[in-house]
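Run log, item B.
One chain of 125 residues. Sequence copied directly from the ordering sheet:
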Amino acid sequence: MSVEYDSAIEELAQVLANRFARLARGWEASTPGKRQEDLEKILAARNVAAKLPDLITESDALALLKLENPLQAVAEQWLRATGLDRPQDDALRQCVGTLCGNTLQQDARQTAKTQKAHRRDPMAR
């Protein structure tokens, strides 16, 4: 039985969903150590399957459908570009800077509130 799709993007979305379901079942059936080892790959595949159809053009979908396993191909390429095994120094510094900046702002607001309350308290004089 052949399924008719309105677009290559719709067909690719179904291929990605089927491939991810198969991959997830295999991952769930694996040993805890193997699951831990493959966690990054399963998360990448989940993101690709969920997001890719909304991000590509019809011609992109047609090209990806020619691949034997478009989910694996895109997920592996994405991991090579963004994976945990790549240096993340700049992203890590940015996260720390954001958190420290937020913490400093919160500390400054708290200090200002404390000082203001202290000035109003007649017992503090």
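Observations after the first pass:
- Residues 26 and 35 are 10 Å apart (CA to CA).
- The chain has a mean pLDDT of 84.
Flagged for discussion on Thursday.
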